[in-house]
Design goal:
Blueprint lengths: L7 E11 L2 E7 L12 E4 L2 E9 L2 E7 H6 L10 E6 L18 E11 L2 E7 L2 H4 L7 E4 L2 E9 L2 E6 L1 H6 L10 E6 L1 H11 L9 H6 L3
Antiparallel strand pairs: 1-2, 1-6, 2-5, 3-4, 3-6, 4-5, 7-8, 7-12, 8-11, 9-10, 9-12, 10-11
Length: 212
Amino acid sequence: MFTGLVEEIGTLHAVEQIRSGRRFTINAKIVTDDLRPSDSIAVDGVCLTVTDRASNLFTVEAVDETLHRSTLAKARIGQPVNLERALRADSRLGGHFVQGHVDGVGEILSIRAQDLGIWLQINAAKSITELSVVKGSIALDGVSLTIAELNGSALSIAVIPYTLQHTTIGKKKAGDLVNIEVDILGKYVRSFLQSYQPLSAISVDKLKEWGF
């Protein structure tokens, strides 16, 4: 489990094709301080397991399913990546609960300056927008953000200067792809409602049964 508060921007040091997917070696200074093999770490919002660590380098592996569902399939040596270690039980939850399970890839439609930050518009699949709400949380490349506007397949987000300076969001441009993870609460609500299909059968008695 993660918070969506990026600790550091690391750099892809090596990318190796392996039988089950790809192996990534990442250069970082902060997260490697207490990182050990078997630890979980979010790389651009994707939860991966550390397989090796040496000095400022650590290695993770992504299977084909993960590559298919995220931007890691296009990752290249020298590319900056957002990094966050798993949430500790005694830590403050400053962002929102992020699992590191990417729901899909979105494309940046436009970026425009707004005040000291930017207004970011992203095209996303229906499976993502139908679980999104204005003022709700969303993770882009592992960064906890708040949805400011929803318009069809487009998500709009206001990004503050601090986030631009401390994550890879500040390096993005129109046409770039980003990993998207919607708030887990939306997934549970949808699953709950789907178990009581059809929705037209909702009544006062049914709402009382559910505790409302």
